[in-house]
Amino acid sequence: MDYSSFLQMREELSLIGVMIFLLIFDIFASKNLIKYFQPIAFVLFAVHIILNCVPRDAFEVAGGMFQYHPMQTYIKTILNVGTLIVLLQAHKFLNNEENKIKRGEFYFLIFSTLLGMYLMISSGNFLLFFIGLETASIPMAALVAFDKYKNNAAEAGAKYILSAVFASSISVFGISLIYGSTGTVYFSDLATLITGTPLQIMAFVFFAVGLFFKISLVPFHLWTPDVYEGAQTNITSYLSVISKGSAVFVLFTLLVKVFGNLIDQWQPILWGLAVISITIANIFAIRQKNLKRFLAFSSISQAGYIILAIISGTAIGMTSLVYYVLVYVFSNLAAFGVLSVIEERTGKVALDDYNGLYQTNPRLSFVMMLALFSLAGIPPFAGFFSKFFVFAAAIDQGFYVLVFIALLNTIISLYYYLLVIKAMFLTKSETPIELIKSDFPLKLSLVICTMGIMLIGLFSAIYNQIAVFGFGI
Amino acid sequence: MNFLSLFVLIPIFMILGLFISNNRKQYLIVMTLGASLLMIMSGIVTYMYLTERAAGNTAEMLFMADTVWYAPFNIHYSVGVDGISVAMLILSSIIVFTGVFASWKIDPLPKEFFLWFSLLSIGVYGFFITTDLFTMFMYYEIALIPMYLLIGIWGTGRKEYSAMKLTLMLMGGSALLLVGILGIYFGSGATTMNFLEIAKLHIPVEMQYYFFPLTFMGFGVLGALFPFHTWSPDGHASAPTAVSMLHAGVLMKLGGYGCFRVAMFLMPEAAHEMAWIFLILTGISVVYGAFGAIHQTDLKYINAYSSVSHCGLVLFAILMMNETATTGAILQMLSHGLMTALFFALIGMIYGRTHTRDIRLMGGLMKVLPFLGVSYVIAGMASLGLPSLSGFVAEMTIFVGAFQHSDIFHRVLTITAVSSIVITAVYILRVVGKIIFGPIYDKHHEELTDAVWYERLSVSVLIIAIFAMGSAPFWISSMIGESVAPILSQLIK
Predict the structure, then answer these.
(1) Residues B216-242: what's their mean pLDDT?
(2) What ipTM describes this predicted complex?
(3) Distance from first CA to last CA of chain B, Å, rounded?
(4) Are A37 and A25 in contact (CB under 8 A)?
(5) Among residues A1, A274, B164, B407, which is most buried (max CB within 10 A)?
(6) Looking at the domain assignment, is residue A228 inside a domain?
(7) Buried residues in B238-257 as b, exposed as e (16+ CB within 10 A)
(8) For residue A266, what are the domain limits?
């Protein structure tokens, strides 16, 4: 066996390199050096992003166990950038006295989950896929419970690990049925072997539950609000953006690569899931008074919109999906960034606490407003374009009714996003949140997000570049 | 990129200028400069357009430019104008210009107000110059969303309720519209989003039956089509002066323009088949709006309902599908835009002095506010269609066109619509008699001071435009008439 072929897995290797370096640095660095732990981590990770942002030609490692496709570079880069933004936003939190000692663990856990997502994305085999899924889930539970003195966080961690394990066990049961009916777990062989026998359909449904759980589609979403509320806000944003982004991409590639023959079966399933996810999440979001729960439901409904790109199964759908994730990363992280800094400084997360925020914190309110407008799909912000392309991808395959339902839901979603904007801009408050001085990393992250929201849509080169490598059925 | 794009670029520069300026004087300089530049631009475009036409250029649209934007969906940034768009550009420039002066003393947060105001004007201008369906839809939505904050922050009365109602209803309209546009694009199998190109293709008739009503209703919501007009009275009544002016004056015209340009132009067969449904709805708008206005006691509500009536007339006229009536529709857009902006400007100024808009609490304002009083009477006369003012030209053309249909259905509708003129006269004259003439109702009103220079400027520009259009409508109506012809030839074939 030619071990040099493993060197082609550059993204994974360089991430592991960063992880190991940070781990050793965290343990052995002197008092003077350890002050620079976070800046070093940012720089290293940024270098890692830049080194791996150029797509290469497709290849396979280990006999098809690991399959690389140029599109994966884009999605991995998007996830990387998102992770970097999350890390920047978590900078202040990790500099707190009680968390200082746990910084190394935080970074290691985050990068482990990221590595798991890499493996999930590039897997060419259900075993590697499952390893990736678990590597992405289990450290995540530790992250959710990271703030160990908070009861909520511990509870959320327990909820997350129990439901994640439950979902992945159902998923692995599905994989075993696939193996039972076809005799292989390699994606390239399965594409022809899966012909649509009842057992295979059942296997698919079981298998897909694991991913639906990660994407948190209704009815697999019940963990989401509680976990989002309990976890530290930066972890919540990581969970809602990066974890979800990787899972939707994997779902699309698997549906296209492995379950292509079952298209007549999975399209109706996704149709139903998209409709109930968007609708139910929207209806629940209206009633939320806690902004973290509010964003949890909003992210469930966003996941429903992403399904509109997946359901088409075409190259346009793939492109729209990656683009949607890109825009979603910036929009949602901007919203969570504002949320996290306010929670960090004042402990306030209720919608009513945001009354009159614009009087005291005009910049934060402005970023939040841009983020919410982008999430609601208002031009000229990026969210409008991503929503439009997702709808176009679905209509291209004739899903008129689905798109119509989704569009009616955008009105509901606009209503609740406007509720937040109304609180910040319109409602006057006797005791608004006092002026918050943001630290430099947070400012940087918000600037990146704002630029992303404002410019991604207007420069079509990004979409066109992604479209080059789009693939579908 | 050609010089038409300046209509979008100037407001963008205005926004950038507002960002770097930091006191009211600087904001006003930026806004005045920008608005004047836009005025000059619209003058230049008109002049160039007319000379080009006089030189014998018969292309459907002039000054076309086209840049590929999103190649996978054939989305282009493409611009071009014909007589209808030129007329709308003139209207928008006048309203933006006067709107800036009408909000001279806006408070609180002047910077933010002008930011959103400029964003709104990007949407408006962009909508009228673009020839691409996607870009058109984008500008349409850009024009909608600033309304929420503009009404919510600077409005009066039940502003939060009205802002939410207006935004959600118009967004609902745009949802219908988006399905319609995507349906047009994918249904026609087009390889372009340019509506001039799509018009040459033939969209399958069974597709048209789905997408025509969606598109027409989508734009119709903004054009205050009954029963989707309910946002309009609340929204206009709560909005601050300049926003009411821009919204009633220009934004509602986006609806009529879109119905004509997109829905009817691209789907003529369905337009013919389904016109009767929408004709009945618009007929209801026209009469119902007028009756609604009679019942109101708030000046802004009166004018908002009269807008429903007048904008209903626009849609009513384009559905008549003959050259006279459609030319009248575009004239009515212009005329209604000017006079309703004048109305809202005056109401804002009166309200700023009396602190009430209830007609029962005012009287004899002519004695203390002669300038505003006279202007109000002029606006009223324009609205009820006095010859030599713009309203007469527009409504006359519409009704002459509508009477060209000799079947009983169109006749009955036309006569019903004509009756609205009488009702208009009732509510206009009643209000004028009550608040402008007669004895002074409130002793405190005797100390009021008349309009100051920026208010006079704003009002005078609008009055001059109304007179100009009313007394010399030939050049503008022939410019519109020429441009309406290609769209109608598509409809009549």
Answers:
(1) 87
(2) 0.91
(3) 34
(4) yes
(5) A274
(6) yes
(7) bbbbbbbbbbbbbbbbbbbb
(8) 3-468
CB atoms within 10 A of CB A314: 19
Q: How far is A395 from chain B (nearest CA, A)?
A: 7
| pLDDT value at B356 more than 90 | no
Residue A123, domain member (yes or no): yes
Tokens (6 digits) for A131: 């390893």
Terminal CA-to-CA distance of chain A, rounded, Å?
Answer: 33
- For B227, the token pair is 């029963």
Taking the CA atoms of chain B, what radius of gyration do you get in angstroms? 21
Look at residue A172 in the predicted model and tell me its pLDDT.
Answer: 92
SS3 state of residue B81: strand
Name residue B289's amino acid.
Answer: G
Residues of chain A with pLDDT under 50: none
- Domain of residue B297 covers 3-492
Q: How many other β-carbons are positioned within 10 Å of the β-carbon of residue A403?
A: 23
- In angstroms, what separates the C-alpha of B338 from chain A's closest C-alpha? 28
Whether residue A411 and residue B175 make contact (CB cut-off 8 A), yes or no, is yes
pLDDT-based confidence at B5, cuts 50/70/90? confident
Does any domain span residue A473? Answer: no
- Cis bond upstream, residue B146 (ω within 30): no
Residue of B18, B74, B141 best to disrupt the A interface, most CBs of A under 10 A: B141
Distances (CA, A) of A20 to A86, A109, B106, B182, B477: 20, 12, 59, 50, 76
Is A7:A18 a contact under the CB 8 Å cutoff?
no
Q: What is the pLDDT of residues B243-259, one digit of tens each?
A: 888 888 888 888 889 98
For residues B294-312, give the mean pLDDT.
88
Among candidates B69, B152, B168 on the partner chain, residue whose Cβ is nearest the Cβ of A425? B152
Hey, what amino acid is at A415? Y
pLDDT of residue A1: 57
A379/B167 Cβ within 8 A = no
Based on the structure, what is the number of domains in chain A?
A: 1
Q: What is the tally of structural domains in chain B?
A: 1
Say if A299 falls within a structural domain. Answer: yes
